[in-house]
């Protein structure tokens, strides 16, 4: 789907469908007003007769409007009754509009939704969100269906309309950002949706190499098992023991900032399938553990978006990638392994494998002398219990960094919520046989998992994002969401803007 920015009046520009907003009870946006006039009051009439819905996200398609309009159709989008829209409502109605356009028969459309007022958000943000919500609405994962039917008349182009030339530049900037972030989000979604046999650690490494081809500014290194052995990554390697697939440690570097500037480092959990290992999971919904690499996918998506936008920052993306499977050679409960940091770990539960691979990656990234380190992981089922599917769990050792991430999540409407990382919780990781166990007690599972990681991140400012509840949807719309790419990109853009 292509996007562009157009400047002109709603009744004068040619299109397959023109999209305008109307609030309750009968408040027309400026563009709607123009169309109403040009069509002898047809919109007012339809509003009066109750044929146009004005609840937020209602969509009404008016075919062959009866006056002089250059558009073949008018799509009226309900905006609810408030003077100003909340950012969330705006994103919802932008998505609903595109879902309606998809089924309208129009192959191109002209959207006047940026003229709607949104609380504390500017024009560029609105243009960006129209692109992102639209791309979300048309996203499909059908690469594994043998006869996937693409819609006959496809929506090919969405033009973002602004009233005057002075607004075009901001709209274009927002649109370009939206396209880059949507591409990154789509990449994260698609990698997440691929099943374990189509997305192995080697496939993730291949994906990183593909990114390098698209963006020569990227530097990509893949560390193999023998490299990890040399580095002493006994914890990461202990998870890979049960798998026939070789583990990979993927390292991507992007230099867009000053040479002297320390990098932001993103570390993404890349367990391409988590059976639990010897502490095997129950069968119900085990297929969803193909999504256990969504942290890794969000790192690949963010790195690719940053490179496409040429953001003036330095960024490193690191992905420890492996499967977690039971095998005669797999780690057993009670085994003790030595991490790259030198700390020893008693593996009391082989299903707490995410922290075992992340801890070595978190030790490894010290070599980049990071400004901050953010890890992203589908780490604990407990996070789903605590926060449900709305918020990413956020923990860390640096409040300014946590605050910046919380704010970025608010701006992007991809929110996180902070949990405490108090030392009382850390005590539950005590082991009789090693420096620590890889699980705490029954309570506060998200926090004790973060406490475990915290033992490996003492040398830098660090935040941990537990995305177990947000990385994918279950039920009828089962599939990866691409979260938290929007949050991460907002954070990185905020940084780039100083
Ligand atoms: N990948 C899972 C976490 C998970 C489970 C995410 C369900 C989303 C939905 C992780 O590796 C895991 O198995 N964690 C265990 C930790 C426990 C053994 C301490 C969990 O959450 O049950
Ligand atoms: Mn697990
Ligand atoms: Zn896992």
Q: Can you give a write-up of this model?
A:
With 498 residues, this protein is of the alpha/beta class. Helix content is 36%, strand content 20%. Strands 8, 9, 10, 11, 12, 15, 16, 17 and 19 form a nine-stranded mixed beta sheet that branches. Strands 1, 2, 3, 4, 5, 6 and 7 form a seven-stranded mixed beta sheet that branches. Helix 4 (123-138) links the parallel strand 6 (108-111) and strand 7 (157-162). Helix 6 packs parallel to helix 9 (294-309), helix 8 runs antiparallel to helix 10 (354-364) and helix 12 (399-412) packs across helix 15. The mean pLDDT is 97. It binds ligand BES, manganese (II) ion (MN) and zinc ion. Residues 271, 274, 292, 353-354 line the site of zinc ion.
Structural key phrases:
alpha/beta, 9-stranded mixed β-sheet, binds ligand BES, binds manganese (II) ion, 36% helix, 7-stranded mixed β-sheet, 498 residues, binds zinc ion
Q: Which ligands does the model contain, each kind named once?
A: ligand BES, manganese (II) ion, zinc ion
* Mean pLDDT across every amino acid position: 97
Reported for the largest beta sheet, the result is: 9 strands, mixed
Number of helices: 15
User: What proportion strand?
Assistant: 15-25%
Shape: elongated
Number of strands: 21
């Amino acid at each position: 789907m292509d996007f562009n920015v157009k400047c002109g009046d709603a009744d004068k520009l040619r299109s397959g469908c023109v999209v305008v907003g109307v609030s309750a009870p009968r408040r027309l946006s400026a563009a709607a007003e123009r169309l109403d006039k040009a069509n002898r009051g047809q919109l007012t009439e339809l509003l009066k007769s109750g044929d146009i819905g004005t609840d937020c996200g209602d969509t009404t398609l008016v075919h062959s409007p009866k006056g002089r309009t250059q558009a073949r159709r008018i799509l009226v989008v309900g905006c609810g009754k408030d003077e100003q829209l909340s950012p969330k409502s705006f994103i919802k109605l932008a998505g609903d509009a595109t879902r309606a356009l998809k089924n309208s028969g129009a192959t191109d459309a002209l959207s006047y939704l940026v003229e709607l007022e949104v609380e504390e958000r500017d024009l560029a943000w609105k243009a960006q969100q129209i692109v992102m919500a639209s791309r979300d609405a048309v996203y499909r994962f059908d690469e594994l269906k043998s006869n996937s039917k693409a819609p006959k008349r496809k929506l090919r182009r969405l033009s973002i309309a602004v009233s005057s030339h002075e607004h075009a530049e901001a709209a274009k900037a927002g649109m370009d950002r939206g396209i880059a972030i949507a591409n990154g989000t789509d990449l994260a979604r698609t990698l997440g949706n691929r099943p374990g046999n189509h997305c192995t650690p080697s496939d993730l490494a291949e994906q990183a190499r593909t990114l390098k081809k698209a963006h020569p500014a990227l530097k990509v290194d893949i560390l193999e098992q023998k490299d990890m052995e040399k580095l002493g990554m006994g914890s990461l390697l202990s998870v890979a023991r049960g798998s026939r697939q070789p583990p990979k440690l993927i390292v991507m570097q992007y230099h867009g900032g000053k040479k002297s500037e320390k990098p932001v480092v993103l570390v993404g959990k890349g367990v391409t399938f988590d059976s639990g290992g010897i502490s095997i999971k129950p069968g119900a919904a085990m297929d969803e553990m193909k999504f256990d690499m969504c942290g890794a996918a969000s790192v690949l998506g963010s790195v690719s978006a940053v490179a496409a936008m040429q953001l003036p920052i330095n960024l490193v993306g690191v992905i420890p990638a492996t499967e977690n499977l039971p095998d005669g050679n797999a780690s057993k409960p009670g085994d003790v392994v030595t991490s790259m940091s030198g700390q020893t770990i008693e593996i009391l539960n082989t299903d707490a494998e995410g922290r075992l691979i992340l801890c070595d990656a978190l030790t490894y990234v010290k070599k980049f002398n990071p400004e901050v380190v953010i890890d992203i992981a589908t780490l604990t089922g407990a996070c789903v219990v605590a926060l449900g599917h709305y918020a990413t769990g956020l923990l860390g050792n640096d409040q300014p960094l946590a605050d910046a991430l919380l704010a970025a999540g608010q701006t992007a409407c991809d929110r996180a919520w902070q949990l405490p990382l108090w030392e009382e919780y850390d005590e539950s990781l005590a082991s009789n046989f090693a420096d620590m166990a890889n699980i705490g007690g029954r309570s506060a599972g998200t926090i004790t998992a973060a406490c475990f990681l915290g033992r490996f991140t003492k040398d830098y400012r660090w935040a941990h994002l537990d995305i177990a509840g947000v990385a994918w949807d279950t039920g009828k719309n089962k599939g990866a969401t691409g979260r938290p790419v929007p949050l991460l990109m907002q954070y990185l853009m905020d940084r780039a803007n100083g």
